[in-house]
Amino acid sequence: MRLKIQLSYNNFTVPMSYQSILQGVIYSLLSKDELGDFYHNDGYHYDKKTFKCFTFSQLFGKYKIENKHLIFDDDFYFYISSLDEKFLKHIYKTILLNNSLLINKQQVKIKNISILNLQPFIGTKKICIETLSPMLIYSTKDNYSTYYRPSDKESLNFIINNIQDKCLAYHYPIKELVFKIDYIIYEKRRMMKFKNCFYECFMTKLEIETNFETLSLIYNCGLSSKNSCGFGMIDIAHEKSNISL
To answer: What are the residue numbers of the active site?
Structure first.
């Protein structure tokens, strides 16, 4: 399930690396009780790995770049996605109770919030996906990280292993994991800074073969690594519909 949050603020300004700011806004929408603490500090675990339950997109809207900052004309929006409906319901209700959000010391008006979901299908299907935030594929050994393009031969195994780990961490049963990259339409390299770390990642568009269970997990949780830091959110053409919560 996914939320689209539409906002408005004249000349809204954020640094070009704003993912940690947006992550902080998402955490601020959660309660300060035990539930909020779980999502913020604990998360889901498998094999010494920790997975949070959400991912989020870049900001979308008309903007210009000045002094390493993005300045949006007026209206802009972003998406939050999660496999955990309780997480999204909490954010949804919090937004309904407020007229604005504080983002980077600017009181931004909330114009609308809508709910999106996938249309189920049976069997496997060839489908085109594209990233709404850059995909991060990497491995770490002896404190040294190696980054991979989606087209690198090692990438598919990392992606599939990541999906399997998420299934085990979230206790999300997939009878048959199906994820095959048939064709890479494009891959655009980005160097992204999150807090004090730089990551080599890629905006990409892929033709894949998958089933609904696998697609639902990557649609809701993100593709590959560090999704809760604003990496790996995907969109699927003609597979969304508005529903009520």
So the answer is: 27, 40
Grouped pLDDT means (10 residues each) for the chain, 245 residues: 96 95 93 72 78 92 96 96 91 94 97 94 96 95 91 96 92 92 96 92 97 96 94 79 40
* Topology alike, domains 2-117 and 120-242: yes
Q: Alpha-carbon Rg of the chain, whole angstroms?
A: 18
Report whether CATH 1.10.1240.10 matches the domain 2-117: no
User: Which two three-digit tokens encode residue 98?
Assistant: 């407020």
Residue 204 makes CB contacts below 8 A (sequence gap 6+) with 130, 131, 135, 150, 184, 185, 186, 187, 188
pLDDT of residue 108: 97
CATH number of 120-242: 3.30.70.1900
The CA-atom distances, in angstroms, between 9 and each of 19, 20, 71, 132 are: 18, 20, 10, 22
Give 128-180 as a DSSP string.
EEEESS-B--EEEETTEEEE--TTSTTHHHHHHHHHHHHHHHHT---SS--EE
pLDDT at 59: 98
Taking the domains of the chain in order of start, what are their residue ranges? 2-117, 120-242
Phi, psi for residue 45 in degrees, rounded to 5 = -125, 145
Closest CA to 74 of 8, 167, 5, 126: 8
Give the pTM: 0.91
Please compute, for residue 8, the number of CA atoms within 13 A of its CA located in the half-sphere on the CB side: 6
